[in-house]
Structures are given as C-alpha cells and as structure tokens.
Q: What sequence folds into this?
C-alpha cells in the first residue's frame, strides 16, 4: 500500500501563486509516477500534471506554462507549483500514484481545496 498526503491548498487572488505538496509513504517502490488531478463542482476530474520516477513531466494544456510539477526523492514528496492562478483553477486537487507497468492510479490522497478569487 501507498499512502499520500496533500498539503498547501488555500485561498488566493487571481494572478497569485500556491505550492501544493504530496508526501508519499509505504510501498513507494511499487509506483512509477505521481500525478495531480483536480475536480471542480459539476465538472469531470482532470489530470493536470504527472511526473515519473525518471523525472519526465507532462501537463494538460489548461495549465501548461503556469504550473510546474517537481519531486524531491529524498523526501518522497512531489510538488505542484501553481503560478498565474485563474478563478477557473478553483477545485479540489488530489495527488495520485501510478502503479508500475500500468496506467492505473490506485492510490489517492485526501485532496486539498484551492480557491482562486477574481
């Protein structure tokens, strides 16, 4: 099992920045990537950024150029730096871990609320 704990959400004005953290523990050798998802009320869940164990990153078009995903392997922590925030970035943000040799994300954190005011 892998446990994930997010932190860093909050309320920020449009144009501001926040940094989310996702601390992983447990059988982390069984995962090969961590992604950040978000879900706003009434909208489908969206995968916004992924970082692999090798450091390869991918972003959704909606956040590319504004968000940066990174990792600190010594701390087993993945970060999502969010800059130039927009009201449409308001959502609950979740980190999730992908199992080796699959496209499945079976491990999820509890989520952290990000609210961007206009």
A:
């Amino acid at each position: 099992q892998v446990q994930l704990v997010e932190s860093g959400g909050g309320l920020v004005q449009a144009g501001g920045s926040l940094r989310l953290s996702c601390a992983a523990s447990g059988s982390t050798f069984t995962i090969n990537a961590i992604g950040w998802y978000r879900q706003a009320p009434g909208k489908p869940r969206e995968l916004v950024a992924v970082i692999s164990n090798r450091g390869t990153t991918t972003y959704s078009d909606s956040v590319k150029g504004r968000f940066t995903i990174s990792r600190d392997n010594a701390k087993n922590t993945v970060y999502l730096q969010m800059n130039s925030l927009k009201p449409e970035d308001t959502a609950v943000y979740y980190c999730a871990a992908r199992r080796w040799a699959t496209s499945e994300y079976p491990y999820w954190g509890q989520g952290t609320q990000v609210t961007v005011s206009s």
